[in-house]
C-alpha cells in the first residue's frame, strides 16, 4: 500500500498544503496573504483569519490536483512550531480534525527542520553530514545535519534574524513589506561597495543583526539631513550595500563553521536563501573553498508545505508521531 501524507503549513503568512506519496512531494499549493503589505509587517490576528479562509480551499486543491481521496491518506503532517500562535492553531486544528475523523496518525513538524529537509524534495541532495545555513524572517542558524532527524545548531542569531534585518532596513528606506525581495531586486543595479555601515561582530559562530540595523538607520538619518531625497536618488546603491554587508556577515561564520567541522557539503535554506546576492556569493565562495553547495528551488525556499510533507515522511518512517492532544508550540525547541 502506498504511503500518502497530506501536510499543512500555517506558521506565518502563507497557507500551504502538499501531498507526498512514498517520499515524493507531488505538489505544493501556496496561498500568500497579501493583506500584511498594507501594515508594513505581518499582523498576527489578520494572519490567523486569512489562514481560516484559505485552509479548506488550499487543502482541497492539493488533494484534487494529486487525485487523492480522503480514504487514500495514511497520515496528516502539520507545522507544530515555531511560529505565530494563532496561525499555528488554525493549521493544527485542521490537521487534528482530519486525523481524528479519518483515524490516521498525526505528525507534528518543526518548521526550521523542515526548511532544511526541503533539500530532499528534489535532486541534487546533500550527503550527510552537511552544514545548513538557515536564514528566514524569524531565524538565522548554522546547523550541522547528521541525518534526517539528527541535527544540531552550531551558531545562531542572538537578536534579530537576517530576514528581519532585510525587512527592517527596507522599511527604513520606505519600501513595502516584505522588503527582502525588494532590496534584492534594487541591489541588482547597484554598487555594493559604495556605502558602509557600522555592524556588530559576535564571537564564535553566533550572529547579531540589530547593530547593523541601527548603523543603517543612523546612516540614513545623517544623509537625509543633508539631502531629503537621498534614499530616492540612491536606492540601488543603498540596497546593494546593505545586502553586501548582511551576506558577508552570513558567509563569514559559515566559512568558520565549515573549517571547524571539516565539512564541505554546504546547504542554505529559508526565505532569505531566495536572495540572488547570497546565491551568487555562495557559488563563488564554494569554488574558493572546494565546497559542494545545495540551494533549494525558489518554491521551496520561502514557507511551503512541501518541506513539511517531506519532513513528515521521514518522521513517519521513524515512527515519530504526535499525540492527538498536540498543542501548537510558538517557540518549539530545535
Ligand atoms: O522562511 P520565510 O518564508 O518565513 C519565515 O519562516 O520567516 O522567510 C521570510 C523572510 C522575510 O524576511 C523575507 O523578506 C525574506 O525571507 N526574503 C528575502 C528574499 N525573499 C524572501 N530576503 C532577501 N532577498 C530575497 N530575495
Ligand atoms: Zn520559514
Describe this protein's structure.
It is a single chain. The chain is of the alpha/beta class. The protein has two domains: 131 residues, ATPase, nucleotide binding domain (Nucleotidyltransferase, domain 5); 169 residues, Nucleotidyltransferase, domain 5. Helix content is 43%, strand content 18%. The protein is built from nine helices and eleven strands. The model has no long low-confidence stretch (mean pLDDT 97). Zinc ion (ZN) binds next to helix 3.
Unreliable parts: none
How would you state the average pLDDT, rounded?
A: 97
- Look at the helices and sheets and give the structural class: alpha/beta
Number of domains: 2
Number of helices: 9
Distance between the termini: 33 Å
CATH superfamily annotation of the largest domain: ATPase, nucleotide binding domain
Q: Biggest sheet, open or closed, and with what strands and sense?
A: 6 strands, mixed
Number of strands: 11
Strand content: 15-25%
Proportion in helices: 40-55%
CATH topology of the largest domain: Nucleotidyltransferase, domain 5
CATH architecture of the largest domain: 2-Layer Sandwich
Shape: globular
State the name of the first-level CATH class of the largest domain.
Answer: Alpha Beta
Rounded radius of gyration (Å): 20 Å
Bound molecules: 5'-O-[(R)-(carboxyoxy)(hydroxy)phosphoryl]adenosine, zinc ion
- Secondary-structure element pattern, one letter each: EEEEHEHEHEEEHHHHEHEH
Amino acid at each position: 500500500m502506498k504511503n500518502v501524507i497530506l501536510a499543512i503549513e500555517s506558521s506565518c503568512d502563507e497557507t500551504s498544503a502538499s501531498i507526498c506519496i512514498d517520499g515524493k512531494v507531488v505538489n505544493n499549493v501556496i496561498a500568500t496573504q497579501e493583506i500584511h503589505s498594507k501594515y508594513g509587517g505581518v499582523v498576527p490576528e489578520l494572519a490567523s483569519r486569512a489562514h481560516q479562509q484559505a485552509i479548506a480551499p488550499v487543502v482541497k486543491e492539493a488533494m484534487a490536483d494529486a487525485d487523492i481521496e480522503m480514504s487514500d491518506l495514511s497520515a496528516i503532517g502539520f507545522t507544530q512550531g515555531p511560529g505565530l500562535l494563532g496561525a499555528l492553531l488554525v493549521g493544527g486544528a485542521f490537521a487534528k480534525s482530519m486525523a481524528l475523523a479519518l483515524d490516521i496518525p498525526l505528525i507534528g513538524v518543526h518548521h526550521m527542520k523542515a526548511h532544511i529537509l526541503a533539500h530532499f524534495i528534489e535532486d541534487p541532495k546533500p550527503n550527510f553530514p552537511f552544514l545548513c545555513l538557515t536564514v528566514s524572517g524569524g531565524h538565522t542558524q548554522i546547523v550541522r545535519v547528521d541525518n534526517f532527524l539528527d541535527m544540531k545548531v552550531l551558531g545562531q542569531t542572538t537578536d534579530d534574524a537576517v530576514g528581519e534585518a532585510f525587512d527592517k532596513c527596507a522599511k527604513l528606506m520606505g519600501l513595502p513589506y516584505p522588503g527582502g525581495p525588494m532590496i534584492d531586486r534594487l541591489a541588482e543595479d547597484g554598487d555594493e561597495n559604495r556605502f558602509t555601515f557600522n555592524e556588530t561582530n559576535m564571537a564564535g559562530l553566533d550572529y547579531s543583526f540589530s547593530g547593523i540595523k541601527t548603523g543603517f538607520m543612523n546612516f540614513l538619518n545623517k544623509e537625509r539631513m543633508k539631502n531629503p531625497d537621498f534614499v530616492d536618488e540612491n536606492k540601488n546603491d543603498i540596497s546593494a550595500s546593505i545586502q553586501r554587508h548582511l551576506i558577508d556577515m552570513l558567509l563569514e561564520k559559515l566559512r568558520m563553521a565549515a573549517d571547524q567541522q571539516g565539512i564541505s557539503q554546504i546547504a542554505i535554506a529559508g526565505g532569505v536563501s531566495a536572495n540572488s546576492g547570497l546565491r551568487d556569493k555562495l557559488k563563488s565562495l564554494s569554488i574558493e573553498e572546494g565546497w559542494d553547495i545545495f540551494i533549494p528551488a525558489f518554491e521551496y525556499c520561502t514557507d511551503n508545505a512541501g518541506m513539511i510533507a517531506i519532513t513528515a515522511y521521514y518522521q513517519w518512517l521513524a515512527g515519530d508521531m504526535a499525540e492527538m492532544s498536540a498543542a501548537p508550540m510558538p517557540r518549539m525547541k530545535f
